[in-house]
Design goal:
2 domains; elongated; FAS1 domain; alpha+beta; 14 helices
Length: 372
């Protein structure tokens, strides 16, 4: 999955049911590439099992945290994070950004999503190590880092069991500078907590005198671009971009909202009949009926609710902007990807790039156009 940079600096930036035998696609290539629904569900189960195992492994390795419950009653959040020493980058960032007093205050009473040093190591320099963070002098970089730290803080204590099941969002302490850029999105399913479709909560309910800590395996990065801005930037979305412009739907994805866009790749569009098969042909469409058909296709690829790949579950039904009653698509989660199927698709479309995180939604690039 692509990683995106925030303004000026950084964004890394998106149960087994009755099995239905997958019919063969007319294309021989698709026949060879299309996995069975059994294999998709197996990968969905594997995703859950791997994340569950990662949590269990971390809990076992750091179970010593539980032995310090009594000692922690007189320790604030920062003091708790000093043992074990796996939060050096996070605490260095707190110090660098002048937030030490905030996290040490007796009145803090907040929730902290604390990334480990291993999580910070995935970021580009100078944000990747405690030493590099300590050496930052550029004011813009410090401000970016400060917003990142604030994006990991909720203004009230929230224990693991207090997060609602399914999908939700919480307001962080990051100042709102753009739409939804101070919200963290929470997927609470399969016994696991996943943030922004990516960051896994490894260890919950580490209590401090002034808050509660949940340890996470990825640094949370506030979104900086809208769906529309992403689609404008990358040439691989040229057909979708032209289709949205032609159908006068592009403006929807520039404004406020929490959308999910199942974005067919240019290769997916190329399988459609002329004139819907590429950007150049789409640009020439003038017939109102064809434009209406194009709008109908696009509406079936957009949901007005944010679904990360993890939220697709096992055959979850996603309501789209298309006309009812045939306005739902069916999802199956996978390992950093997933699958989605339209009502008239013989087989599932594969999500080839998942969880492109934006300020007004999430994009999943798919390899087939969904058929209503």
């Amino acid at each position: 999955m692509k990683k995106y940079l925030t303004k000026g600096m950084l964004t890394l930036v998106v149960s087994t049911l009755l099995l239905i035998s997958c019919k063969k696609e007319q294309s021989k290539d698709l026949q060879l590439q299309q996995p069975t629904e059994e294999s998709m569900l197996a990968e969905a189960n594997q995703a859950v099992n791997e994340k569950t195992a990662a949590v269990a492994k971390f809990e076992k390795e750091y179970s010593s945290l539980l032995e310090y419950t009594a000692a922690r009653t007189n320790k604030n959040v920062l003091q708790v994070l000093q043992h074990p020493a796996i939060f050096k980058s996070f605490t260095a960032a707190v110090e660098k950004t002048g937030l030490t007093a905030t996290l040490s205050a007796s009145t803090f009473n907040a929730t902290v999503f604390a990334p480990t040093d291993a999580a910070f190591s995935k970021l580009p320099a100078p944000f990747n190590t405690a030493a590099n963070i300590a050496g930052i002098t550029d004011p813009d970089s410090i401000n970016t880092l400060r917003n990142i730290i604030l994006y990991h803080l909720l203004d009230t204590e929230k224990l693991r069991q207090q997060f609602v099941l399914g999908r939700s969002s919480s307001i962080t302490l990051k100042p709102e500078e753009g739409q939804n850029d101070n919200l963290v999105y929470i997927s609470n399913s399969f016994g696991l907590l996943v943030l922004n479709g990516k960051s896994l909560v490894l260890f919950s309910n580490v209590k401090a005198s002034n808050g509660v800590i949940h340890i996470v395996d990825d640094v949370l990065i506030p979104p900086a671009e809208t769906i529309a801005q992403v689609l404008m930037t990358y040439p691989e979305y040229s057909s979708l971009f032209s289709a949205l412009i032609k159908a006068e739907m592009f403006g929807i994805l520039t404004g406020p909202g929490n959308f999910t866009v199942f974005a067919p790749s240019d290769a997916a569009f190329s399988k459609l009949p002329v004139p819907f098969n590429n950007a150049a042909n789409i640009d020439t469409i003038s017939d109102p009926a064809q434009i209406a058909s194009l709008a109908g296709i696009l509406q079936y690829h957009i949901s007005e609710s944010r679904y990360f790949a993890w939220d697709l579950g096992r055959y979850n039904q996603i309501i789209t902007k298309a006309s009812a009653p045939n306005n739902r698509v069916t999802g199956i989660m996978g390992l950093n990807r997933g699958w989605v199927k339209g009502n008239r698709n013989n087989c599932f479309s594969k999500i080839i790039t998942a969880n492109i995180f934006t300020s007004n939604g999430v994009i999943h690039v798919i390899d087939q156009v969904l058929k209503q």
